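Problem: given the chain below (297 residues), write out its structure.
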Amino acid sequence: MSAIVFGLATAVLWATTLLASARASRLLGPWSTLAWVMLIGLVVTLPFVVASAPSVAMSQQDVVLMATAGVANSAGLLCNYAAVRRGKVAVVGPIISTEGAIAAVLAVIAGDPLSAAAAAVLLLIAVGVVLASIDQSAGDPELAVDLAADTASAGSSGATAAVITLALGAALLFGVNLFVTSRIAGVLPLAWTVLPARLAGVVFVTVPLVALGRLRIERAAAPFVVIVGICEVLGIATFALGAKVSAPVTSVIASQFAGIAAIAAYVLFGERLGRLQVAGVVIIAIGVATLAATHAV
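Solution.
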């Protein structure tokens, strides 16, 4: 049950980062957005890292896992920000949400237990995630009007090959990061599972941009990068907590963030949900309720 709770918390946090990062990256560009997000995340994380340092004893394998997680997460976020800057959130979101399925497959291959019943329900939830995030504006003039502002700011009338490629790259990198993070979470304090990406991002992105005088910030973008920086840290933390119980379940439920982002866009920005999106939300709700009621995990 705790894997479901932490998975849902992660989904809400990642939906928040998806929406806020789209705004930030369109104002600052993906590189400056990533630089600020990683710097803010590192500032938030460091006190907890220092406090838990005396109890940490890392092996060489732990160091390799942390480095892998850091590089994969940072590179994935860069691809993510570049994608939402050029394309629609409703298109990029569902592609990136496959990260959970990728991580779940990796976890099962590595030996994590998963019953047939749980696998079937998780597949149902994954289908719901995709349906809830489908962009139907191309075939519905009214929906197209609702999404016109986002389309104009993104500079594209739809998903281009470049946007799809960037989103797929982000999904693969995030899947690797989630899988590796689930392994780190089992042997290191929670704060240390959040540290790798923040540290890698600051060292390889923030510091070079500052040195080159290319780190940008605008007043309008500041609240968004702060929100993304904090929610990224909290999202990885809740995922790590859930992964200690069940990595496959936490991974797939966390991927609901794409559907949640679609609902939030409707509430906050007045974007309408199409019939397929409504069906997806219903399927997700049924799937989560079934997991909770049957204790499939």
